[in-house]
Structures are given as C-alpha cells and as structure tokens.
Amino acid sequence: MMTKKEWHACLEVMEEMFPDAHCELVHKNPFELLIATLLSAQCTDKLVNKVTATLFEKYHAPEDYIAVPLEELQQDIRSIGLYRNKAKNIQALSHILINSYNSEVPADRDLLMTLPGVGRKTANVVVSVAFNIPAMAVDTHVERVSKRLGLCRWKDNPLQVEEVLMKKTPAHDWSKTHHQIIFFGRYHCKAQNPQCSVCPLFDRCREGQKRARKGLVNRETSVEID
What we know:
mainly alpha, Endonuclease III, domain 1, two-stranded antiparallel ribbon
C-alpha cells in the first residue's frame, strides 16, 4: 500500500499536470449543481452539460420542476441514462426542498443524502463545490486512480476509498485533490488505454508496473502496445 509520503509526492505531480482542475458540470448556483450532479450518475459530464444547457433555461427553481407533468420532465432529460428514475427523483427532491428547506439546498452532506437520488458522492460534490466545505467525492475516476496507484486495496468500496483518501490527504486539500484525481483519471489514466508509456507516476503505479510486466507498455518508445 502507498504511504502518505508517497501519496503526497503523487499529488505534487497531479498539481503540476492539472493546476486548474475544477468541477466541469456547468451550473450557476447550488440547486443547478445538485440537479447536474444527480444527472451525471452513470453518465458523462459532457452529455449532462449538453442537456442542462436547455434544461436550466426552462427550469430555474424547485417549483419549476414540479409544475410540469413527470412525462414532460422525462422527455427533457431523455438522452440521459436512467432518465425515468432521475426525473422522478428530481421532482421528489424538489418537493422536499420546497416543504422543508424553503426551496434552498442545505449545506449539509447528511441532509443532502436524505434527498431522493442523492448518494454520498453527489452530496460530497455539492457541499464541496457549492459551499466550499472540504469533502472527498469518490466517483469512478477517483476510485480507479486510487486503486491503480496502490493507495487503496482493489477490494475497497467507494466509502473505504474515501476514508483512505481523507486520512492521507490534508483536509484543506480534499476538494482540490478530488478534482485533480478526476482530471488525472479522465484525461490521462483512462479506464481504457491509460497513458502508462508517458506517465510521470509510472514508477509508483502498481497497475502500470503490472501492464509493463505483461508487455503492454514500452517506456523506451513511449508507445502503448494495446
């Protein structure tokens, strides 16, 4: 397992690679971020931004989402995966925000997680990005990178990954680190064809070393064999 010192060295490299890493979900306020993050489950940020470009012109507040039939909202987000269930959750959480929170998004992870369709990852993103509260959201990129580098065990679930990351990362860097790991995983250490041949963390990465032993990486020519 990677030590805290080794992890901090990795973070320094990610900082050099992606100093401006940020939330790529386009939004103007906490409520829009909540909706966008909910929609992003099992979906790319790029597609979510395409959908919300028109969605957020039509719907501005929780009241707007419950003012239309469920079928209409479903059609508005039809290109998003799991759109039927997500539309139901959006209307359900809109009712709760109106009735319990004066139509405002609560700046509390535990309260956010009581909303329909809002899991721990979504809640962490919202409190971190919208309210500047230190949090470590674990999505597929964060989980993949953490395990490939050997920071976490392969069998760890997202909560266990989050706990390790928080333990080994200074609290004031949690939000920044979250985005830098995402950028590293999204644009460099991809699920398919990771750029091991040119990766500055190759010597520290157990997945990269494993791929090299299998002959899948040629560091001398900087060419991925697969």
